[in-house]
Automatic annotation (TrEMBL):
This is Pecanex-like protein 1. The chain crosses the membrane at residues 21-41. The keyword Transmembrane helix applies. The keyword Transmembrane applies. Coiled coil: none annotated.
């Protein structure tokens, strides 16, 4: 059969045919296999060094200082309602771990979650780069410079565009910042430290009809000094099953999470004395009473929880408040800016006229 004169020339030299081509291919495979082996050994060595450095950093962790606690609250974690309702005194602030416990937690996490740069060097996805920066697109093998995604084959290291495809939230409003990248403060650690920057993302926010609400439905207007009393609190659209003790490092570390559109979290109740009813109170002193309530109940339908206050220590006007919290103790977010947050407050007069019966909280709420 006559060959077409349109047949293209071989891209190999005349001598590079037949047996010579096979031998060269085998040599290439062997050589490439050696390179991969060396790369894997080198990569494993790098991972080991990185992990050792990370584990060594765990040994520098120190336990946080103990926080000041409310004066009249039963300490620790306890139950009410025949053991069905869990109360965490002071939002778990008194539950402070030892230095060795923290270091062990750190080492356990490092061993379970790090092995060097797993996401990059073995073909995993790289973190997105900020605008104007260079991103490593997946590492050296299966997404890096050599095979299937590097500089040779159309992927891997790329330069992010200096202008984002869409404007960021709040564009044009002159926002001061939206990340800790611009802050000079140290990163927040999950403990109750001030002058820190919290990088935890806000998380999930539900629709307005599913946003949490809260109301103090019953509270006495007058009680005697040291007299125990009950505050009845109703919540709606709040699943009360998420609580991370503040003293254990669970403060501002968990993003908001929805379950069937509802916030998972807990609620707080506190009573503090007011030095004046004509000006905003000093925020620093600890309250006389503070609990965080978690009972694995709640939901879309409103219900009522009884909060037992063991008594307040001095005469005066006390402000007793209740408010919902997500897993990180923040008041839950709302779809709209003009919604009322899940918060309620009432005045209780201690001493003076002596004790009184529980009254409808609506008449003296603030």
């Amino acid at each position: 059969m006559r060959r077409s004169h349109y047949r293209s020339e071989s891209r190999f030299p005349a001598w590079f045919t037949g047996r010579r081509r096979i031998i060269a291919a085998v040599a290439t495979v062997v050589a490439f296999g050696s390179i991969v082996t060396v790369t894997q050994v080198s990569d494993a060595s790098t991972k080991s060094r990185n992990q050792q450095r990370a584990l060594a950093a765990c040994n520098n962790i120190q336990a946080p200082k103990k926080s000041k606690l409310s004066t009249e609250t039963k300490t620790g974690t306890y139950t009410t309602g025949n053991g069905k309702v869990t109360q965490h005194a002071d939002d778990g602030a008194g539950d402070v771990p030892t230095t060795e416990t923290l270091r062990k937690r750190c080492r356990d996490w490092m061993n379970g979650n790090t092995g060097g740069n797993n996401g990059g060097n073995n073909g995993g996805a790289a973190s997105p780069a900020p605008s104007g920066s260079t991103a490593a697109g997946g590492g050296n093998n299966g997404g890096g410079n050599n095979n299937g995604g590097g500089n040779n084959n159309g992927g891997g290291a790329t330069t992010a565009p200096t202008t984002p495809a869409t404007p960021p939230p709040g564009a044009g409003l002159g926002i001061l910042t939206n990340s800790c990248d611009t802050s000079n403060l140290d990163a927040h650690t999950g403990f109750q430290d001030g002058n820190r920057c919290v990088s935890t993302e806000f998380g999930e926010v539900g629709v307005a009809a599913n946003n949490p609400s809260l109301l103090i439905t019953e509270i006495p207007t007058n009680v005697a000094v040291g007299q125990a009393f009950t505050i009845k609190v109703s919540t709606r659209n709040l699943i009360r099953d998420r609580f991370l003790a503040a003293g254990q490092g669970g403060y501002y570390v968990e993003s908001s999470v929805l379950q069937n559109g509802l916030v998972r979290g807990h609620f707080h109740t506190a009573c503090r004395v007011l030095d004046s009813t004509d000006e905003a109170p000093d925020p620093e002193p600890v309250p006389a009473f503070f609990v965080a309530t978690e009972d694995s109940k709640g939901g879309a339908a409103p219900d009522v929880v009884n909060i037992q206050v063991p008594g307040l220590p001095t005469e005066g006007t006390f402000q007793c408040s209740s408010w919902a919290g997500d897993g990180s103790h923040r008041i839950p977010m709302m779809q709209r800016a003009n919604e009322t947050p899940a918060f309620d407050s009432a005045r209780v007069q201690v001493g003076g006229n002596g004790g009184g019966d529980n009254a409808d909280g609506g008449n003296n709420n603030n």
